[in-house]
């Protein structure tokens, strides 16, 4: 079986491609390399270019007519950048996704697995959320994900595509074989900041200490990226059972079901490293929310998927990835 992984040189897409390879599914990668890394495509079928480039997508399908399914992870994902450049974000994430769907349809492909984000939930009070929880995207970036989900559902309802949107909670860790991982050198997300603060001997700022959570810090659902990748493999394998004429579009949360506050994440980090991480209380980030974690059993029911890795294993994996990343990616 062959799948097209759009954005397959990025963090999630490259890990999904690795998991596919390990499961006997051949990934064909399309990536513009705007944020993705060529190194993550080594030894894989790779086409450099844009998902909106019709001639490129036509070429991919003519050279790989046996592609059955598309995993669409191609997107810009930086929240503050999306606030500074909403036009660029809507163009890249929504406009180009629409073009991409047109190209897929022209090439007879109607199976789409879409990378969505659990940050589209309202998540104001730190409660668990299932797939029916109210949405309330807080930034242009997250709104692009919500718009894509809506757009794809409309197209699916017209019988022109079948779409499974996977709403990721907060991915951590790397491919256990260390082929790929987070490409950013200075990530701004919580675990990334913890690792850089720990390396530099600086205090980690706990941004927001007055949220309605058990200890006042923000709550999230940290899920190992290798578990996420396994969920994609299950989605690819079960696609035709899940997405039918009667149910042409659906959404599934991908999280562990365990909420972890920032202070709990710090404590887990300390269990993994030798010297404890210093922390300092800080103001909340602009537009930040208390957060959420997944509820319900839809992923298990529909995909037969449950996450296997613990929080500590995810932290350990992220730490192990740093020297590999520095060696593999020189900038
Ligand atoms: O230096 C930091 C960084 C973060 N946090 C806190 O850690 C929690 C998690 O923050 P992250 O930035 O790691 O995660 P978010 O869920 O806020 O957002 C990230 O994960 C989302 C996935 O759901 C989207 O991908 C989004 O683009 C990305 O920024 C929040 O309470 C935040 O306030 C700190 O205390 N200190």
Automatic annotation (TrEMBL):
Names of required cofactors: NAD(+)
One Gene Ontology molecular-function label: UDP-glucose 4-epimerase activity
Name of the coding gene: galE
Pathway assigned to this chain's UniProt record: Carbohydrate metabolism; galactose metabolism
Protein name: UDP-glucose 4-epimerase
EC numbers: 5.1.3.2
Catalytic reactions on record: UDP-alpha-D-glucose = UDP-alpha-D-galactose
Gene3D superfamilies: NAD(P)-binding Rossmann-like Domain, UDP-galactose 4-epimerase, domain 1
Swiss-Prot/TrEMBL keywords: Carbohydrate metabolism, Isomerase, NAD
SUPFAM superfamilies linked to this entry: NAD(P)-binding Rossmann-fold domains (SSF51735)
Origin species: Streptomyces roseicoloratus
Segments forming domain NAD-dependent epimerase/dehydratase: 3-243
Family: Belongs to the NAD(P)-dependent epimerase/dehydratase family.
Pfam hit, one: Epimerase
Enzyme superclass (EC): isomerase
């Amino acid at each position: 079986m062959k799948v097209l992984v759009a954005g397959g040189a990025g963090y999630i897409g490259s890990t999904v491609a690795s998991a596919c390879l390990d499961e006997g599914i051949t990934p064909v990668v399309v990536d513009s390399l705007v944020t993705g890394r060529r190194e993550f495509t080594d030894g894989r079928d790779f086409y450099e270019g844009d998902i909106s480039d019709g001639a490129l997508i036509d070429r991919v399908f003519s050279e790989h007519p046996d592609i059955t399914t598309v995993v669409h992870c191609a997107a810009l994902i930086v929240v503050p950048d999306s606030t500074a450049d909403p036009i660029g974000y809507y163009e890249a994430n929504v406009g180009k996704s629409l073009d991409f769907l047109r190209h897929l349809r022209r090439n007879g492909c109607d199976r789409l697995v879409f990378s969505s984000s659990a940050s589209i939930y309202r998540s104001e009070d730190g409660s668990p959320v299932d797939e029916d929880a109210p949405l309330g995207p807080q930034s242009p970036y997250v709104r692009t994900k919500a718009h894509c989900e809506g757009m794809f559902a409309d197209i699916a309802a017209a019988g022109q595509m079948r779409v499974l949107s996977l709403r990721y909670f907060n991915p951590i860790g790397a491919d256990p074989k260390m082929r790929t991982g987070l490409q950013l050198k200075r990530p701004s997300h919580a675990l990334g900041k913890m690792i850089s603060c720990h390396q530099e001997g600086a205090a980690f700022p706990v941004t927001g200490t007055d949220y309605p959570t058990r200890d006042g810090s923000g709550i999230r659902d940290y899920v190992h990226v290798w578990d996420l990748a396994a969920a994609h493999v299950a989605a690819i394998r079960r696609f035709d059972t899940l997405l039918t004429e009667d149910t042409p579009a659906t959404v599934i949360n991908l999280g562990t079901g365990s909420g972890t506050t920032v202070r709990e994440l710090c404590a887990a980090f300390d269990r993994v490293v030798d010297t404890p991480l210093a922390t300092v209380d800080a103001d909340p980030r602009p537009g930040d929310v208390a957060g959420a974690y997944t509820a319900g059993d839809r992923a298990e029911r529909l995909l037969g998927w449950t996450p296997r890795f613990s929080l500590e294993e995810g932290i350990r994996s992220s730490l192990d990835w740093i020297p590999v990343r520095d060696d593999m990616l020189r900038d």
